[in-house]
Task: structure prediction
Amino acid sequence: MIAFALAIGSTRQVCHLETSFCTRNQALAYLQRNRTAFEQRARELFARGEVRDGVIHLTMM
Result:
């Protein structure tokens, strides 16, 4: 699982991306390649109020 912060207005929202990669470096590279898509998905989930325990949970595409 990789955590990153998403800026929504003047606040930062914590997001967790669950991956099936064996290493953190592989997961980080995947996140960087697809960051725009994950940020868009996280914004959609935030707008719908799908935040659990203050965190937006994402999975691999």
In short: Residues 28 and 57 are 16 Å apart (CA to CA). The chain has a mean pLDDT of 93. The two ends are 14 Å apart (CA to CA). DSSP finds two helices and three strands in the chain.
